Amino acid sequence: MKRRRRRPSKTIKHTFVYWLVLILFASVRRMSRRTALRFGEALGSAAFHLFSKERAKVQKHLSITFPDRSPRTIVRLSRAVFVHLGKNAVDLMRMGSSTKAELDRIVSAEGLEHLDRAREEGKGVLLLSGHIGNWELLGAYLAMKGYPVSVVGKSLNNTRLDRLLVSHRERFGLRNIARGKATREILRALHRGKFVAFLIDQDTKVEGAFVDFFGRPAFTPTGPVTLSLKLGAPIVPIAIHREQDDTHHFIVRPPIELIRTGDETEDRRINTAHCSKIIEDFIREHPAQWVWMHRRWKTKAMKVKTEK
């Protein structure tokens, strides 16, 4: 079967985006962090005004999720979402040239002892998180601290841009696992006693179940729970958020105690619901630091075959 050729227009677009990102990376790295963050804030503010479709999605999702908030508050919170993502972008761009000492200065942590205890069990550790705060910083910080971490994620369609972002993650010793090749790589990492991170707060085309997320059924990946039930690897919730002074605070919670009913399907659903609630609680603490433009509830139960 012949491979489908990429359309010239898409190739040109991908090339343009790649070089634009390279120029931004080079420019931001020359700035002090304070200047870069101001630039990121300006980028986020501009995006809020320019990208009307994304702004509308953010405002819609926030209004449904927080019906008690006034329209003015929703608009203000929506703008804060874009500003936060702009700051995330420049922090990511600077990360490739940051020293470990600088990373240590801007990130504080609590609960690292939970990681150490989980690791001592010798079955590997499943890290549970979401697209909260500067999630790219999570793995980099842990790897810098000597924890062998692999992150499971979807590869970008823009292959050159994807390689650029992966190289940034790997600079601190973080290992990237492309979702299509995930199973074997994940099992290998866990059998070697390593950490594997999953972000379960997005509606993606993977094995999942419908569980509650902010009061509405959302299709949620069951991978971490399935692995934990089968292999005994503990699930440890982690998250990071941006403080008012633009430092970051990293939080590690105790391992989740799994419920076992004897019904595998129900076990996956119940425990995934618990995991989803933990992520929701993290988001509620810092609602401006989540990706509200994501269509979290796009998949409907009638469109998906139930787990057997």
Descriptive report:
The protein has 308 residues and is of the alpha/beta class. The protein has one domain: Glycerol-3-phosphate (1)-acyltransferase (3-Layer(aba) Sandwich). 51% of the residues lie in helices and 16% in strands. It contains 11 helices and 9 strands. The chain has a 7-stranded mixed β-sheet with strand order 1-9-8-2-5-3-4, with helices on both faces. A two-stranded antiparallel sheet has the order 6-7. It is globular.
Q: What's the CATH class label?
A: Alpha Beta
Question: Mean pLDDT score, rounded?
Answer: 90
Strand content: 15-25%
Oligomer: single chain
State the distance separating the first and last CA atoms.
33 Å
Please estimate the helix content: 40-55%
The CATH architecture comes to 3-Layer(aba) Sandwich
- Overall structural domain count: 1
**Count of separate DSSP helical elements:** 11
Shape descriptor reads globular
The count of DSSP E runs of length 2 or more, i.e. the number of strands, is 9
Structural class: alpha/beta
* Topology order in helix (H) and strand (E) letters: HHHHHEHEHEHEHEEEHEEH
CATH topology: Glycerol-3-phosphate (1)-acyltransferase
Query: Which strand order do you get reading across the main beta sheet?
Result: 1-9-8-2-5-3-4
- Rg over CA atoms, rounded to whole Å, is 20 Å
Largest sheet: number of strands, sense, barrel closure: 7 strands, mixed
Q: Unreliable stretches, pLDDT < 50, 5 or more residues?
A: none
